[in-house]
Each structure stands twice: as C-alpha cells, then as structure tokens.
Design goal:
The protein has 14 helices and 15 strands. It is α/β, with parallel strands linked by helices.
C-alpha cells in the first residue's frame, strides 16, 4: 500500500505541481526526493531512508522539525482566533511579536511591517524607499543599487534587484533604475590583489556608482550580510560597514536583507549590528522567524527614517501597501513560540560555540582536488566544486554549465545514499543546518560530505574521462 501511495504521489507531483524554478525542458519528468516525515535535524524519504537535512529546509528550520509545543501553540491559536483583517483591526499576537522584534532590532527600529515571507518583506522595503522619497519631495530619488550574486526574492520588483543572471533568463525583470555592482566574492578577485585592496575596490565601486548616477537620484543600496543563495559569499572584513558609511555620506537608504542571516544563523537575532557593526535603515527578515513552521516575514524600519514621513511630516500620505495575511495571528504565535524556544534552549550561544568547529570542518574539505573553494560564517557554509582546467577544453558555455550541474547532482545523490541531504546550487553545495545540531552531528555531516565528493571525483574520472587531480 505504501509503495502504491508513493508512486501516486510522484505521479501527482510530476503531473500537477509546478515547482519553483521548474526546469521546463523536463517538466513532468522529475525524480524528486519525496519527504514523508521529519524530526529534529533529520528528514525521512519515501523509501524509509533517514538523512541529516543539511540546508535545514531552505535556511529556515532553526529549532528543527516536529516540535510538539509548536504544534500545540499553533493549534490553540487556530481555535482561539484564526484571522483578523490587518488593514483595520489588531490582535494580541502580532502586536506582541512586533514589540519583540523592535527589542531585538539592530538599532532603533520601532516600526515593524509584517509580510508573508522574504520576497514580500523585500518588496515592502523597496516600496517604502519609493514612498519615503515621494513624501520628501524627491521623486527622482528612486534608483536602487544591488550586487552581482545577490538574491532578494522572486516577485517582479524584487527580481529586478537580483544579481543572478541565470535567474533572469526569459523573464522581464530589468529596469533602468536598478544597478548591479561587481561580485564581492574574494575568490574571484585578481590573483595579484590582496583582500584589503579588493575590499577597498568594491567599496569605491559603490561610491563611484552613486556619483555616476547622482546622489539625488539614488534611493537605496540593498545587500545581504552574507549572499546566501549566491553561494554563501562572505565579503572581506569591513566591507559591510564601509558601504553602510558610504550610504550615510550620500543620504542613500541602506537595506539589510537578513532573510537568511537573522534569527540565529550567525549566533545573534540579527547579524547587521552584532556581527558587522551596521545599523541599517531597513531590515528584512523571514525564514527562521518561525523556523519554517508557518510562512511569515517582516520589514523593520528605523525610527530616523520613519519619523521623516509620519506625524507632522506625513503630508497626508498613506503607505498604501499590504497583504491579506500581514500580521496573521496564527503565524505570529508560531514566531513567538519559536523565539521562546530559541531563548530557553540558548541556541544563539550554541551557534557561537559550534561555529568555529563547523567552519574548521568545512575548510578541511579543501584538500580534495575537486573542491574549488569552501566559505562560510556561523552555521552557514558552501562547498564549490569544479573540474580544474576544463574551461580551457573547448567546451561551450552550455556544456560547461551542464557539467557543473552534473557535479552538484552527483554529490547530492552520493550524500543522500549515505544519509545527508544537500541543496546543490549548480556546482555549489550549501549548508545551513538546524541550530540544534550537535558537534557530533556536524562531524557526521562533513564526514559524509567528504566521501560524497570523493565518490563524485571517481565518477568524473571513470565515467566522464576527466583528470581531476
């Protein structure tokens, strides 16, 4: 019966469910892993195989799966009050959650706008930038500066500020008011350039772009403290604070996209101030706010910004933006319970304690010839693999991309066979395990990862005939 049910699930999945980032050439033919249940840091597939969830869903299951007290809190709120109209009513849970977030915020940010997730949080921040400058009588100050390798969401507006070219294929998400800076990936810097020189060059590039456009036209700079979906790219030390200072110099709003880095991923509620020394004008968050138990996001707005377009400065305006499920009471309760669990179990301190070991184990993979780079911070990591020298083999860009995709898929397949689920992004395998992971489980995860890469290296040499060493 179970086998028949799983076969039907796979058939329904392929026939009816169009997934995010669906590869259209093979639509309806996917062989996706079907997850049937989960507990703690582990997931189980339809064959009964139990695996460590390396990416914690999508960077989000901070407290792990299957928490009964989360289910109880959610169920109680469903019975008590399922929904309110956030446009004209209020309720205890969202008001309480807004208070908690304001207390946790990096700086004086006492205004919280609730959204349905990360994309809508960033959408809110970008629309607020436009609103802010319109109220202030600066209708031209709408240009947004972002960065290569950035990911900020998949709506029309947030897609415009993305810096991943492959994601823009066949989609109309470009506009003249959006400008992308060069990558901040230190591994991509010129061979003769030091980290300090690279950092200064990237900071100077932002200032030059502001001056080129005209500071009177630049509304905001948006940046992830760590570029997660870009491959866990950590900019050189000091970069994040220095670009923030450039923005202050030219009256450009600074948006910190903390959809991934907030709620403990780097050992703090928010990373902007505690890790990078920055007090942004707007902060976006989602994912870990409920540990993925229910969808929710938020945009936090600094007092110094909010005060300039409210009260006597409002000019009769309304921020005409919102969502049916803004401040949803059940989602708010899930977030409050999630925060309570994280505090009670000391997960922020645990991340700070485990992070050095996590990063050391990640770095130790560099001795494998197939590994091009490892990078990370906190409980975030990425292993990037490549067949060295193949770019000079005469292969077309399409063939090189196909090889990279195959690399990631092979590593993922081998690791799943041994008990570790990954999230390959082309040839990059990213990690962001649940914050409840132990030192022993970290070792198990990276032991499997090492063997998975070694087996893939053997595949490449035997099946495809490439020399990896």
């Amino acid at each position: 019966m179970t086998q028949k049910f799983n076969a039907q699930t796979r058939q329904n999945d392929n026939q009816f469910w169009m997934h995010p980032w669906e590869y259209m050439a093979s639509a309806g033919q996917a062989d996706r892993t079907i997850i049937t249940q989960a507990d703690g840091i582990y997931v189980q597939d339809d064959t009964g195989a139990r695996m460590i969830d390396g990416p914690a869903g999508m960077w989000c299951t901070q407290i792990g799966y299957g928490r009964k007290e989360m289910a109880d809190a959610i169920a109680e709120q469903v019975v008590k009050l399922t929904y309110i109209n956030p446009f004209s009513l209020s309720a205890g849970p969202p008001a309480q959650l807004a208070t908690r977030l304001a207390q946790m915020a990096p700086g004086a940010m006492n205004h919280v706008f609730f959204t349905t997730g990360g994309t809508t949080a960033v959408e809110t921040a970008l629309r607020f930038v436009h609103y802010y400058n319109n109220v202030k009588g600066r209708p031209l100050k709408k240009h947004i500066i972002s960065r290569s390798d950035a990911y900020h969401g998949s709506s029309y507006l947030t897609g415009m500020v993305a810096g991943k070219d492959r994601d823009k294929s066949f989609l109309d998400i470009t506009m003249p008011q959006v400008h992308l800076l060069s990558t901040v990936n230190p591994k991509r810097r010129p061979a003769d350039m030091s980290l300090e020189e690279f950092c200064t060059a990237r900071v100077n590039e932002l200032e030059a772009k502001i001056l080129e456009i005209g500071a009177e036209k630049v509304g905001a700079f948006i940046a992830e403290p760590v570029q997660a979906s870009g491959g866990v790219i950590v900019a050189p030390n000091g970069y994040f604070k220095r670009v923030w200072e450039v923005c202050r110099k030219y009256d450009v709003l600074f948006i910190a996209d903390e959809v991934v880095t907030a709620f403990g991923r780097l050992g703090h509620w928010f990373a902007s101030k505690e890790v990078f020394g920055v007090e942004p004008d707007l902060v976006t968050c989602a994912k870990g706010i409920t540990s993925g138990y229910l969808p929710m996001g938020a945009c936090l707005i600094a007092d110094r910004v909010f005060d300039q377009v409210s009260g006597d400065n409002a000019k009769g305006g309304s921020f005409a933006h919102g969502y049916t499920n803004s401040g949803h009471p059940v989602c708010s309760v899930a977030a409050l319970k999630n925060i309570e669990i994280m505090e009670r179990e000391g997960l922020l301190a645990q991340v700070r304690e485990l992070a050095p070991h996590f990063q050391q184990r990640l770095k130790s993979l560099r001795d494998i010839p197939l590994v091009f780079d490892t990078r990370g911070i906190g409980l975030l990591g990425c292993v990037e693999c490549t067949v060295r020298g193949v770019e000079h083999s005469g292969m077309s860009p399409e063939e090189l991309l196909a090889l990279d995709v195959d690399l990631g898929a092979r590593i993922d397949r081998h690791c799943q066979e041994m008990g570790l689920m990954l999230r390959p992004i082309v040839n990059q395998c990213v990690f962001s395990p649940a914050l409840i992971i132990t030192r022993k489980q970290i070792d198990e995860m990276f032991d499997i990862m090492r063997e998975g890469i070694v087996r893939t290296m053997h595949d490449i040499e035997v099946d495809l005939g490439y020399s990896v060493a």
